[in-house]
Amino acid sequence: MEDDHRLSLKASLHRFIIDRLEEDDLLFEMDRHQMRPHVQGYVHTYLNEHNIDSLRADSARLVNELLDEIVGFGPLQALLEDDQIDDILINGASQVYVERKGKLERIPLRFINDQHVLRVIRRMIAPLGRRIDESSPMVDARLADGSRINAIIPPLAIDGPCLSVRKFRKEALTAEYLVKQGSLSMAMQEFLARAARSRCNMLISGSTGSGKTTLLNILSQNIGQSERVVTIEDAAELQLLHGHVVRLETRPPNAEGLGEVTARDLVKNALRMRPDRIILGESRGAEVLDMLQAMNTGHQGSMSTLHANSARDALMRLELMVALSGFSATELLVKQIISSALDIIVFVSRMPDGKRVVTQVVEVLDVADGMIRIAELFHYDLLQLQFHEVDKPSAKLLGRLKDQQQRDAS
C-alpha cells in the first residue's frame, strides 16, 4: 500500500503538472499519447528542482499514474482496463476492493483523500450531464463503455465517498461457456434454449451478482432474427446478438426533480412499438404489472430478471410488487394473472467460492388452494454438487414446445 509521503508527492506533482499544462495551453488539446512526452519532461523538471532522487528509478510509473489522473480516472484507470475484474468497490479513500472470478478481495490501492475520490467520481459523470454534491448526494449512471456506476457521498455516506462500478463485458458469454464452467448442465442448457425459441415467458431470479443478466443475455441469443425485440433497462447492460432490437433506458429526475422516465413509462410505451418480445432488464416496481399484462396479451417470449432468494420467493415478490403498484384486485386474481403470464422461472445462485450456478428451473402451472402451483424441472444438489432432472414439463408447456418444433420443421 502506498505510504503518505508518496501520496503527498503525487498530489504536489499533479498540481505542478496541471499548472504547467495550463500555462503552455496544452491541457485540453492532447490525448494520452500526445501528452506523455510533456508529462515526462515536467516530472523530470520537478524531481530536479526539488532534489528528489529516491523516485527517479520509478519515474515511468509516476508518469503513467499522472497521465491516469489527467486524462483518465486516476487510480481507477488500471482497474477499469483489467479484463479479469468484474466489480470495483471503493469505500472512502483508503479501502478499495475488486471482484475477480466471483471472489471479492481488498487490493493495495488508495486515493490521496476523500476529495480525490470525489474528483474522480465527478470526472466520470461529467460527460453524462450528471452531477453529485450535498444537495444531490447519490447518482446512478452508465459510462461510455457500458459499465454501470453508483456513487454516494457525505453526508449520506458517513465514512467518505463510495463508488461501485459494475464493469461491462466486451464479449458476450455463450451457453457453451456456462456448460463448460459447470454453471448449468447440458440438459438444462438445451431445455432453456428450446424454451426461449418457443417463446416461453421466462423470469430469471437470484441474488445480487449471481449472474442473472448474463444468463438473460445468453437466452436472448435464441430469439429468432425475424422478431422485433424491445429492451428496457435502468442502465443498459444487455448485449443482444440480434438484428432487430430497440433499446430503451430509464431516466432519473434532473436537479429540479423533473424529467424522470420510469421503467413503467417505458413498458407502456413499448407496447405501442409493435414488439414481438419485451425484455425488462430488472423487475423492481410497478412496471411488473404492465409486464405481466404484456405477457398475457400476445407478447409471448418476454423475459425479465428479479432479485429473490428462491423460485417460490420470486413469485411472492411479484405478488407484492403488483399489490404496491396500486392495482385493485383480489389476491386470487393477482395469482391467476401471474400464473397465466409466466411459464418458467430460473433461479441462479452464487456459490461460496464465487462460482455462479443455475440451481433451479421450475414451471409455473396454475392456481390451486390459493397458491400458485409450480413444478421443479431441474435442480442443483448442493451436497452432491450435481445437476438433476426432476420432472417433465406439463402438457401445457410440452404443447408449446411441440408447436415450436412443428413450426421449425415446416
Major sheet characteristics? 9 strands, mixed
Kindly report the spatial arrangement of strands forming the biggest sheet. 9-8-10-11-7-12-13-14-15
Q: Provide the CATH superfamily of the largest domain.
A: P-loop containing nucleotide triphosphate hydrolases
Average residue pLDDT: 85
| CATH architectural arrangement of the largest domain | 3-Layer(aba) Sandwich
The total domain count is 3
Series of secondary-structure elements, N-terminal to C-terminal: HHHHEEEHEEEHHEHEEHEHEHHEEEEH
Query: Uncertain regions: pLDDT < 50 for 5+ in a row?
Result: 405-410
Structure summary, number of beta strands: 15
At CATH level 3, the topology of the largest domain is Rossmann fold
Strand pairing plus helix content: what structural class? alpha/beta
What would the principal axes of the Cα set say about the shape? elongated
- Return the CATH class of the largest domain: Alpha Beta
- Work out the radius of gyration: 25 Å
| Beta-strand proportion | 15-25%
Give the helix tally. Answer: 13
Head-to-tail CA distance between termini: 65 Å
- Fraction of helical residues: 25-40%
Domain Bacterial type II secretion system protein E: 72-346
Protein name: ATPase
Pfam family, one: T2SSE
InterPro entries: P-loop_NTPase, T2SS/T4SS_dom, T4SS_GSP_E_ATPase
